[in-house]
Amino acid sequence: MQSASEHSEAADRPAPPASPEHAYPDHWEADVVLRDGGTARIRPITADDADRLVSFYEQVSDESKYYRFFAPYPRLSAKDVHRFTHHDFVDRVGLAATVGGEFIATVRYDRIDERGMPASGPADEAEVAFLVQDAHQGRGVASALLEHIAAVARERDIRRFAAEVLPANNKMIKVFTDAGYTQKRSFEDGSVRLHLDLEPTDRSLAVQRAREQRAEARSVQRLLTPRSVAVVGAGRAPGGVGRTVLRNLLGAGFTGRVHAVNAALTDGPAELDGIPAHPSVGAIGEPVDLAIVAVPAERVPEVVADCGEHGVRGLVVLSAGYAESGPAGRERQRQLVRQARSYGMRIIGPNAFGIINTSEDVRLNASLAPHMPAAGRIGLFTQSGAIGIALLAGLHRHGAGLSSFISAGNRADVSGNDFLQHWYDDPDTDVVLLYLESIGNPRKFTRLARRTAAVKPVVVVKGARHSGSAPPGHRVPVTRIPHATVSALLRQAGVIRVDTVTELVDAGLLLAAQPLPAGPRVAILGNSESLGLLTYDACLTEGLRPLRPLDLTTAAGPADFRDALAAALADETSDAVVVTAIPWVGENGATESGDGEVLAASLREAVASVPAPAKPVVVVHVEMGGLAEALAVATSTRPVSAGARTASTPARPATGGAAGPGPGADAGTDRGAPTQAPSAPVLRTTDPAAPGSAAPAAPGTTDPTAPETTDPAAVPPPDRQATIPAYPAAERAVRALAEAVRYAQWRRQAAEPGRVPEYEDIDEGGAAALIERVLGAGGDPDARGVTLGTADVGELLSRYGITVLPTLPAPTPDEAVAAARRLGYPVALKTTAPHLRHRPDLGGVRLDLATEEQLRTAYAEVTEVLGKPEELQPVVQAMVPRGVDTLVRSAIDPAVGAVLSFGLSGAASELLGDTAHRLVPATDRDAAELVRSIRTAPLLFGWRGSAPVDTPALEELLLRVSRLVDDHPEVVAVSLEPVVVAPAGLSVLGATVRLAPPPPRTDLGPRRLPSY
Fold first, then answer.
1. Cα–Cα distance between 993 and 971 in angstroms, integer?
2. Nearest 5 degrees, angle CA 186-CA 192-CA 193?
3. In the beta sheet, which residues pair with residue 620?
4. Does residue 73 surpass a pLDDT of 70?
5. Distance from C-alpha of 154 to C-alpha of 148, rounded to nearest angstrom
6. How far is the C-alpha of 723 from the C-alpha of 633, rounded, in Å?
C-alpha cells in the first residue's frame, strides 16, 4: 500500500553527521482538508512522539511495512524510534499527519550528497519516504504531506527529492507522478528511482488547487448531505434554540435519521417530538454525520469531545459567546476550532443561524428559519442571521427558490471560500449570492470568485465597508487598501458587486430567472409615457443604450402588452426588454381589480410565443396590484430534466408536506407556509455566457466532466411560464439589468483571456542583482523597506525598459544654469519639497524656460514666494512634448497581493479618487481596461478636439511595471508620477521605488486552513 523509499534504511544507513538542533518550527504546523472532506493536522515530529510513532507503526499492515522498507519489518527498534523522532529540522525533518492526536501518516526527508550519503548544506537533494496507515489510505493524506514536506525542503534550500519505490507500489508512484513537479524516473536494482524538482510549476500549482477545490467542496457536501443528524441541546419543553431547530428539521421532511440529545435525559429511553432522545451522542449507538450544537458556550467543549470520539463528521454550532463577545470569547473560539479539527471535524459557526439544503434527496433545514424555502437554483451564504432571515423572506416573496442556504455566524472554520468551492461545480446551483461583512483571505476569495464567475454569476454585498476588519477571532493579514479598491478588484474577478441587500435580491432574481443579455441595447415598452422616460433615464445613468420607449398609451390592454412584448423579443435591435405598467383606470376613476394577474398571463404568453427567447425580460410596475405576485408564483427557478415529472407525479410540498424521519413528525408543523409549485426550467439561451447554459471552463482550465457536444434532443424545452422578475421602481430594475449586462460582457471576455506579454529587453537577472545588493547592504533589512536613491531607481527601472527623465539638483541659480546647459534648453524648474511635490497649482513649477535669463528670473520668483532653496530643493529637468499628466503605481497589500493602479495626476486621482486598479500580473487586456475605466479617460482620447494621446505606449508602461513587481516581490511599492503621455510616446518625469523583504505568499504555499 502507500509508502516509499529508504531501502532497508534502518539497518544499512550510517548515522548522519551530527548537526545543531534548531528551534521547533511551529510555522510548519497546519490543518488541512483531505480528499474525503475530513481534516487532519500536519506538524513536525519531535522526541515526545515516540509512543505515538510506535502505536502508529503497530497499526500499519505488513504489506505497507514491506513497501516502506523493502523487506519484512514487523516492529521498530529503539534505535529506529530514536532516529525517526529526533530531527534537526534542517537536514533531517519528519512530519506527521494526526487525527485525534494520533498519527495516521508520516513523511521524512534526509539530506543526501551526490553519492546518496547523509549530508548537510550546501547539498541540495534529499531522500523522502512516506508511510500511511492502511485505514487512512485513499484519503489524499500522502499528497497533502508531499506538498508540506516540499515547502519545508525549499525553505531549507533543498531543491530536489529522490525516492525509491517498489514497482508494485502503484499508489505511491501515483502520488509522485500526479504532483505536477518536473521529474525523472529510472529503474535500478528492481526498484523505481524517482527524482522530483521541487520548484513549483504551473502544473503543480494547478494540481494543488484542483485538489484543494475537491477536498473543500467535499467537506461542504458532507455538511449539506448528512444521512443522520443529532440536535444537541434539544430541551424537554417546547421553545428554545435546540427544540426550534429540531422542529424545523422534522417539519422540512429531512430524509435521514434524526436524534435529539439532552444531557438531562438520564432516566432511560425517551422521545422528543416523536424521535429518540439520548443523554449524549455516544448513547445513540449508531453513526451520526452532523451535530447541531445548541448548548451554552461553556458546555460546548464536552459536546465536541463527545461528537469527535464517536465519529461525527461536522458541527453546526449555534451557541453564542465567542469572538463576537470580546477577548475571552475569541480565545474560546480558537479552542473550539482546534478541538474540532483535532478530531477531523469541520465547523459552521459558532454563533451561526444554520444551514439548509432543499434537495429532494435531503430536505435539510438545520436552522432557525421556521419555513423551508422552495427548491431552486440560488446558493445563498450570509454571515448575519438577521440578514439571512431578510434575504430568505425577500427571495420567497418573489418566487425564487434556493439550492442551499448557509448563515455561518463567526465563520471560524467553514467560510464563504469553502462554499464557493462547493458551488463552483454544484449542478443544483446556477447563481451564488453572498452577504459578507469581512473577507478573511481576499487573495484566495478573488481567485475562487474568478473561477466560479466564469461558469455562474457571483453576487456580493459587503457590509461594514467603512469599519470592517478581519473576521472575529481570525489570524489573517488585514488589507490596507480602500474599500473602493477592493470592489474594483472583485469586479475584475467577475464578481457582481452591489451595495445593498435589496440590490442583492434584485440581481439574484434576474440572474436566476432570465438569460444573460447579449449587449447593452434595451427596449422599453408600457402604458405610461412618464414611467417609460424614467426607465430611459435610468438606463442612461447605468451606461446602457436604451431605445426610444414605446408608449402603448393608457388605453392599452393585456393583449396590446402581449403583442408588443412578443415583437420586442423578436426584434434583433435590442438585447433586453423592460416592460413598464401602471394600473388601468376605469371610467369612474377607480382601478380595476385583477389587472395584475391578467397582465402577468399576457406577458408569459408573449414569452411563450417566441422560439427560444435569448434576451431577458423585466417588469417595472407602479401600484399594479397582484402583478408581482402573479409573475412570481409562476414557478420556482428549479429546472426539471425531461421526463422527470409528469402530471401523475406532482411536486412535493416545500414545507411540512412529507412525514419526517421519526414516528412523530408533524406535517403541519409549519402552518401557513406556502407549498412549492411544480418546478419548471429557467429560460435558457444558447449564449455561452448565460447562467445555467453549458458552463465553459474557467480561463486556463478544462472541465473533464463537460461533454464535447450537447444533443438538443436531450435538453428539455424551456418552460414559458418561468419567473419574470418585477420591480416597484425603474431604478431597481435597470440597475439589476445593468449588472447582468456588465457580467455577461465579462463572461465573454473571460472566455478569451488576455496574455502577459514578453519583452526581450527586460533584464530580470540584472534587476535581481541590484535588489539583492541594496537589501543586503544594511545587513538585516528593515521590514518597512528601503526607499531607493535616484540613481538606483533609474537603474532598476531601466532593467525593465522604463526610462526616467534625468533630473539635476539646482541648489543655487548658478547650478541651475549649469544643469540647463547640460540638459539643453528649454527646461523646467521644479520644487521637490514634500509639501510641494506634484502641486503645480502652488507655483512651484515653471515650464518652457528657453534662456538663461528666463531661468534665473523664475528661480528668483520661486524662492522669493515659496521659501529658501534648501527648503524647496529645486531641480532642473528637460522639457518633454506636452500631453496628459498621468500616474502609474503598484503596491503590495499583505492580504490582497500586488495591485497595479492608474489615474490622471493631480486632483482627479487625489481628490476625486478617480483611480483604476488591477491585480498583478496584469494582462494586455487588463492594461487596456485600466486606461479606459477611469472617469476622466476621455481626456486621453481627444476630448473636445484635443489630440488623442499614445495609449498603446501607456499600456506598455503599465505592463512593464506589472512585470517588475511580479518578477521581484521585494519591490513592494512603485510610483511613477507624473507620466506625461503625448500624442507620440510618453515621458516618466518622476519615480520612487521601495524595496522590502517580500510578505509571505500563502496562496503559493501548501494547502492549509486558516490558523488560530
1. 7
2. 60
3. 580, 727
4. yes
5. 10
6. 8
